Amino acid sequence: MALDAYQAALAIEGDRRAFELLYKRWHPKLLRFAYRQTGHMDSAKDVMQDAAMAIAKNISRLEDPDRFSAWVYTIVRRRAADHITRAI
């Protein structure tokens, strides 16, 4: 989506408002994905808390704003896998 790429590009450059808007729009999708990965809403919320910090901290490393969705889904998937591994 062009708006995602545009806001991701601004966020990469340090625009906090663009990041907030982008993350706010994506959070519900990512939370549903985390829930599908973990099977529990409380776990999904924990995963999203970890993922949100990683996304905010590392947005400047995203090389291609058009790949934002793939990038955030990868972060959430990895955080969910870590959460599941710790729970075992």
Descriptive notes:
The chain is an all-alpha fold and 88 residues long. It contains four helices and no strands. The protein has helices at 2-12, 16-38, 41-58, 68-87. The longest helix has 23 residues, at 16-38.
Number of strands: 0
In the predicted model, the low-confidence regions spanning at least 5 consecutive residues are none
Give the topology string: H per helix, E per strand: HHHH
Helical fraction equals over 70%
- First CA to last CA: what distance? 37 Å
Question: What is the tally of helical segments?
Answer: 4
Query: What is the overall silhouette?
Result: elongated
Quaternary form: single chain
Radius of gyration: 13 Å
Beta-strand residue fraction: under 5%
Summarize the structure.
The chain is mainly alpha-helical and 88 residues long. The chain has helices at 2-12, 16-38, 41-58, 68-87.
List the helices and strands and how they pair.
Layout lengths: L1 H11 L3 H23 L2 H18 L9 H20 L1
Key features?
88 residues; mainly alpha
